């Protein structure tokens, strides 16, 4: 890999071009360029690669399977929304050396500790700044490096640090000297201040000092002496200090930047909620038009959309089925120019990736526009490709009085590892179990889908509306029988649902219809959602794949709030934030007051709720660390500000921000406190945003982090920022102090 290899980069059946690939000396960066002289090169970091797929495991490589054998082909899958890199090596041996090499490099990265990651980061900067590659840095290279690192430092101070680090008096910094320079540059006065406040002698934290810090500041009172000893053992780099049962400033900083010192409670990283409640008692991570990677009119359809969504913990994916050639149903956004993929390829991908991240059930939301014949083909593919994964009958073999739980287990089968079909059904579940529908080959059902509902966003009707609301559709018995707990029905009213609806019936609403119901009958909507599933999807006008605010829908207990996963933005940040806890399993238990058909919760009047207990949230934004550059101009340095947003019931929607700091994205200091009153903390999400202030135009996004208020650890905490795409931008972080108290 270090010597380099010529491989074909493949984008389609007709686009196959040779590129020269090489692993750079840092063993962290892949460099590649065209074989033609003079062409610019490109690079990507090994840390950007999530996984390596071997053989024909992408649509692109499958399309050229007749041309190149699988043992020469592999795919690099990147984190976030970046497209895959499909490669064909000259030989099977070369392919294997890259596949094994990349997997080893990824494994090494994943096993790195906090200190090793920081050392690697320092090494990366050294290599970037060492322009002439002589293994040392002169003062001019150091000045250029400071600009690259978002540091605006006057020349005199920079020279003073440079001279102090240059122990050899050579006028350049070599490896160890550069590390010393970096340490002086990144000295954390803010952390030192806290350290000295609790240190008895100003030099170290004894077990008693650390115990007091954990109890008074971090509000960790349980077994705090044992906890203090564990933290010293885990994070203290000095063996001498460890023997004395003490923590140095270096160990204290390592603790604060670790998961234990994170704002996100590590105890919530695994499944910790009650998973034995009915499905309707959970928020369920859900995707809209999952097959699309881009916009809704001309974008590419791909099975990669399903793979990406399922690997993010999504538990409800959507499939739009239409008649295709040769009797094979296709998936695409009907009556648009989006590309088409085969239904059987979608189901194969779903079957393969559904339970890679979590075992909890997946709901396959079918929007069926097919003829009866091709519906039978759909049913055949579902049964033969998914096999035992497809739920074909009720778990107990009889009708219960409510939906099963994600963890439902009987002597016969369990819901974990199962795929549930959401779609239209002939008759009810009772008739299916009693065999009453055995005789019919096909039946008529009312047309209930996104196409029929599109007139809600076009009140006067136009070319986008293609079917009347009252039209009927022929449905094959084979496909109907695949639907068990999620029968799609048209919604009439909350009263009608309360009196006549079955627990296994589910209605879908456009965002505008859902908002109308929230305005008119919010409390009724909450009670409806305690018993039945509801799906909400984006307006047909969102042709750019933008999203609506999901929080409005969660406030009334809607479980399946379907978003365009391919579109980054605040809405997907909220979705990622809500589903970041409970083991990222795609199911989050709703608050207790939203799970009862008897209790009343009105999101617009939270103070009327029984058990109403508002809290005060105080966040002191102390400092930022190594914020990324957002402007590619060499001399541009970030002017950062921090905004804290509360997303919840209408009374809780709020945001406040700090002042901006001039020309310092490396270690800005704020020491500003932002205060909020939160009326329904159980539903609140807190979003931290860093922006680059611009007085003449819109501020530039730098990084963000979103989490449920219920997952926040109090005290001095680091917030590890994420990119717009939701991927890590380590070591960029914020340092804050958090307090949550009951309103007096």
UniProtKB/TrEMBL annotation:
Q: List UniProt keywords, sorted A-Z.
A: Calcium, Cytoplasm, Endoplasmic reticulum, Glycoprotein, Hydrolase, Lipid degradation, Lipid metabolism, Membrane, Metal-binding, Nucleus, Repeat, Transducer
Active site as annotated: 288, 333
Q: Does the keyword Transferase apply?
A: no
Superkingdom, natural source: Eukaryota
Its Gene Ontology biological processes?
intracellular signal transduction; lipid catabolic process
Binding annotation for Ca(2+) 3: 289, 318, 320, 367
InterPro entries found in the cross-reference section: C2_dom, C2_domain_sf, EF-hand-dom_pair, EF_Hand_1_Ca_BS, EF_hand_dom, PH-like_dom_sf, PH_domain, PI-PLC_fam
Carbohydrate attachment residues: 168
Q: Where is the EF-hand domain?
A: 117-152, 153-188
Q: How is the cofactor bound?
A: Binds 3 Ca(2+) ions per subunit. Two of the Ca(2+) ions are bound to the C2 domain.
SMART domains documented for this protein: C2, EFh, PH, PLCXc, PLCYc
Q: What class of enzyme is it?
A: hydrolase
Q: What is this protein called?
A: Phosphoinositide phospholipase C
């Amino acid at each position: 890999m270090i010597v380099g290899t010529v491989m074909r980069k493949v984008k389609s059946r007709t686009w196959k071009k040779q590129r020269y690939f090489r692993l750079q000396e840092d063993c962290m960066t892949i460099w590649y360029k065209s074989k033609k002289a003079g062409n610019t090169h490109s690079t990507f970091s090994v840390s950007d690669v999530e996984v390596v797929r071997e053989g024909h495991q992408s649509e692109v490589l499958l399309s050229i399977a007749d041309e190149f054998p699988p043992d020469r082909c592999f795919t690099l899958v990147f984190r976030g929304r970046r497209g895959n890199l499909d490669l064909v090596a000259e030989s099977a041996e070369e392919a294997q050396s890259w596949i094994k090499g990349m997997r080893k490099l990824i494994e090494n990265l994943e096993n790195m500790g906090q200190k090793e990651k920081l050392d690697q980061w320092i090494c990366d900067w050294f290599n970037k700044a060492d322009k002439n590659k002589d293994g040392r840095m002169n003062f001019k290279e150091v000045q250029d490096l400071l600009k690259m690192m978002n540091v605006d430092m006057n020349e005199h101070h920079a020279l003073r640090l440079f001279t102090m680090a240059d122990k050899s008096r050579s006028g350049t910094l070599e490896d160890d000297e550069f590390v010393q320079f970096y340490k002086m540059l990144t000295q954390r006065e803010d952390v030192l201040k806290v350290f000295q406040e609790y240190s008895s002698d100003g030099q170290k934290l004894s077990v008693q000092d650390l115990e007091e810090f954990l109890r008074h500041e971090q509000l960790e009172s349980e077994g705090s002496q044992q906890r203090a000893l564990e933290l010293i053992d885990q994070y203290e780099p000095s063996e001498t200090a460890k023997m004395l049962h003490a923590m140095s400033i270096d160990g204290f900083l390592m603790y604060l930047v670790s998961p234990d010192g994170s704002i996100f409670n590590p105890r919530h990283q695994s499944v910790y909620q009650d998973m034995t409640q009915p499905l309707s008692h959970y928020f369920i991570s859900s995707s809209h038009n999952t097959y699309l990677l881009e916009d809704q009119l001309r974008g590419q359809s791909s099975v990669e959309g399903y793979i990406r969504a399922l690997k993010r913990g999504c538990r409800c994916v959507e499939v739009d089925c239409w008649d295709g050639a040769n009797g094979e149903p296709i998936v695409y956004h009907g009556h648009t120019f989006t590309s088409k993929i085969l239904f059987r390829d979608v189901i194969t991908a779903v079957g393969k990736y559904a339970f890679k991240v979590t075992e909890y059930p997946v709901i396959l939301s079918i929007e069926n526009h097919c003829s009866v014949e091709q519906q039978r083909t759909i049913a055949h593919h579902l049964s033969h490709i998914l096999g035992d994964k497809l739920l074909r009958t009720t778990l107990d073999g009889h009708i219960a009085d409510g939906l099963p739980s994600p963890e439902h287990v009987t002597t016969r089968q369990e819901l974990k590892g199962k795929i549930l079909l959401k779609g239209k059904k002939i008759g009810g579940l009772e008739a299916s179990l009693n065999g009453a529908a055995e005789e019919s080959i096909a039946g008529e059902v009312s047309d209930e889908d996104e196409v029929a509902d599109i007139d809600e966003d076009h009140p006067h009707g136009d070319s986008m509306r293609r079917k009347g609301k009252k039209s009927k559709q022929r449905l094959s018995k084979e496909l109907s029988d695949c639907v068990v707990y999620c029968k799609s029905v048209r919604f009439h009213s909350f009263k009608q649902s309360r009196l006549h609806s079955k627990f296994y019936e589910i209605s879908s609403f456009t965002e505008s219809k859902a908002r109308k119901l929230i305005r008119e009958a919010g409390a009724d909507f909450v009670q409806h959602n305690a018993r039945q599933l509801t799906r909400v999807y984006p307006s047909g006008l969102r042709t750019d794949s933008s999203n609506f605010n999901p929080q409005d829908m969660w406030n009334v207990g809607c479980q399946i709030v379907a978003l365009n996963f391919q579109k980054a933005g605040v809405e997907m940040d909220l979705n990622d934030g809500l589903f970041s806890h409970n083991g990222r399993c795609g199911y989050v238990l709703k608050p207790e007051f939203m799970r009862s058909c008897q209790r009343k919760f009105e999101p617009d009047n939270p103070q009327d709720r029984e058990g109403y207990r508002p809290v005060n949230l105080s966040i002191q934004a102390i400092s930022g660390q190594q914020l990324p550059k957002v402007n590619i101009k060499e001399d541009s340095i970030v002017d950062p500000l921090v905004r804290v947003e509360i997303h919840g019931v209408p009374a809780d929607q709020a945001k406040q921000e700090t002042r901006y700091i001039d020309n310092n994205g490396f270690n800005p200091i704020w020491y500003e406190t932002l205060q909020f009153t939160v009326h329904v903390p159980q539903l609140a999400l807190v979003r931290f945003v860093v922006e680059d202030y611009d007085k003449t135009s819109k501020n530039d996004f730098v990084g963000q982090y979103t989490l449920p208020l219920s997952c926040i650890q109090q005290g001095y905490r680091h917030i590890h920022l994420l990119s717009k795409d939701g991927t890590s931008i380590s070591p960029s972080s914020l340092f804050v102090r958090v307090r949550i108290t009951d309103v007096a």
